Amino acid sequence: MRLTLLATLLVGASLLASGCGASADPAAADAPKQHGGTITVGMDQEPQCMNRLIQCGSMTATTMIWDSIFDVLVSVDAKGDYAPSLAVEVPTRENGLVRETPGGGMDVQIAIKPAAHWSDNTPITCEDIQFTFDTQMDERWMVISRKGWDLVKSVDCLDQRTAVYHFKERYAPYLGIAGSYILPKHVLDGKDFNTFLNDSISIASGPYEFDHWDRAVSVTLKRNPHYWNKGADDRPWVDHIRYVFVADSNTLKIQLRTGEVDVISPPPDSTLKEELKTFPRASFQIEPSVYWEQIAFNTAKAPTNDVNVRQAIAYSIDRDEIARIVLKGQVKVLDSTLLPAKEEYYIPAWAKYKPDAKHAAALLEKSGWKKDGKYYAKNGKPLTVVFKSTAGNNLRLKVAQLLQQRLKANGIKMEIALEPPNVFFGQSALQGAFDMALWAWSSGIDPSQRTLFSCDSIPTEANDYEGQNNYRYCNERVTELLTKSDVTTSAKERAGYVHEIQTLMAKDMPMLPLFQRPETLAYANRVQGMDDNPLGGFVWNVADWAVAK
Q1: Number of H helices, E strands in the chain
Q2: Phi, psi of 48 (to 5 degrees)
Q3: Contact 38, 240 (CB under 8 A)
């Protein structure tokens, strides 16, 4: 079985931009690394909780902190290739560690490196892998998703360090399961997984340990002195990593300029590149991102539960205008939920949605809306949609304002309600308290999107808000195709499924893709080891960060 790597394709793409601050100091970057010091990372979100694997931990901020504390079995390196981390090697069909079994199943064998241990010096073993699987599948726990995990029949141990995942079906994105995080059985066994890791984390397998959390201020991590992968350099280099929470993106940039923070990854903006060029004692990298911005519709709540209303809104929006004004043409409009670099899977299914006031009007009239003054109305009530997104984000504010103007011109009233990220992601998006919304998803190496768009991924109170289908979108055919796409071993057959999924979704309009976001990593010149990795996240090499003296 082979997986097509988006990352490999992205590496060959031209960078959108790159550069250094006006007072760049190459001597600091080239100086020998020394141990000690603190690096302060500015983040525009504060986690709701520390547990990356349950619903309250679905924010990017949580992932960054978690990835500094926990190593995975298989990671994504700077070239965009799968690479062993805790694992001895990446299991593939070619090396005999992925084997098809009678009846349509498959076995994936993965071994843990002999040196791997937890921060309390307890060895990381196959029992931890078994415990992780049991935790993911335990109905008591509010895990983000069981997609893929539910295809695993059992996990056996060949020896203390070697596990075999027995999949009931062939599963193309198997490394998302067999290569993921490992939980410490000796710490978590018998604990309430819904709460135990929410406020603090008492163990680590990565370069840093949790130190303390000052709510609404920062999370501080400390150097793991027992890091299993310290190497000859005795990594990590830095004593503390401090993640501070600054909701306003302008304030983030100011704090980098003044030296209050050392590292930021600010949201893209039309003036960002030119601004960063003026920063003294700072450098930056801008690269194509795996994140794609999109307008989400709540398909279960009036008025956006009507596909004609959703399509009318789509035909009222000028996405080229948004890309041109908001990002100064740095990116093109995206016409898929997959990125163009995935050439065998990508089709521009949403390309037909361009500004067309007459078509938008015909769709609204088809659903019984009549123009009454400035706005369309039905039963005496104007057609009004509530738009929500994250406060403090200049890009999303500008997009919201452009949307509001365009919809008003076509007789649709849009009310803007921007919320703190923890409220928006933790409540409004999750619980469906919006009509239209704006957020970004990321596309990984594999094209699987079952957790985003399948009927059984809709978060509800009944399922403890498990799943990421915040659109409340349900098309049984799409769900069937998403499932088939995940279990086929034929790349050509899988591409056919993915193309049909895109075509059906473009018609149903649960969301309207906008653009692929550029990713910016800006940092003080005193920080060494910065190397952006859009697929792996910029903390992918946090063990190699250092502070020049």
Answers
A1: 17, 22
A2: -80, -35
A3: yes
Q: Are 156 and 169 in contact (CB under 8 A)?
A: no
Cα three-residue angle 163-164-165, rounded to 5 degrees: 120
Please count the CA atoms within 13 angstroms of the CA of 132 that sit on its side-chain side.
Answer: 22
Cα four-point dihedral sign 291, 132, 467, 105: positive
Confidence of residue 147 (pLDDT cuts 50, 70, 90): confident
Tokens of 199: 């406020």
Evaluate if residue 8 carries a pLDDT over 60: no
Tell me which residue has tokens 């931990």.
Answer: 57
The SS3 call for residue 103 is: coil
Q: Say if CB 192 and CB 212 are below 8 A apart.
A: no
Contact 385, 391 (CB under 8 A): no
Structure tokens at 502: 């895109």
Q: What letters, b where the CB count within 10 A reaches 16 and e where it falls short, cover 280-317?
A: ebbbbbbbbbbbbbbbbbbbeeebbebbbbbbbbbbbb
Contact 430, 464 (CB under 8 A): no
Radius of gyration for the chain, computed over Cα atoms and rounded to the nearest angstrom: 24
Q: How far is CA 464 from CA 55, 56, 117, 144, 459, in A?
A: 9, 11, 33, 9, 7
User: What span, in angstroms and rounded, lies between the C-alpha atoms of 69 and 211?
Assistant: 11
Q: What confidence tier does 267 reach under pLDDT thresholds 50, 70, 90? A: confident
Q: Name 242's bridge partners.
A: 40, 220
- Per-residue pLDDT, averaged over 128-139, amounts to 98
The span from the CA of 62 to the CA of 429, in Å, is 17
Note the pLDDT tens digit of each residue in 65-106: 999 999 999 998 877 678 999 999 999 989 999 999 999 999
Which amino acid is present at 438? L
| Matching CATH number, 289-518, of 3.10.105.10, 3.40.720.10, 3.40.50.880, 3.10.590.10 | 3.10.105.10
Backbone dihedral angles phi then psi of residue 443, each to the nearest 5 degrees: -105, 125
Give domain limits for the chain. Answer: 289-518
- Give the predicted TM-score (pTM) of the model: 0.73
pLDDT, tens digit (0-9, with 9 covering 90-100), for 197-236 = 999 999 999 999 999 999 999 999 999 999 999 999 999 9
pLDDT in tens, 190-205: 999 999 999 999 999 9
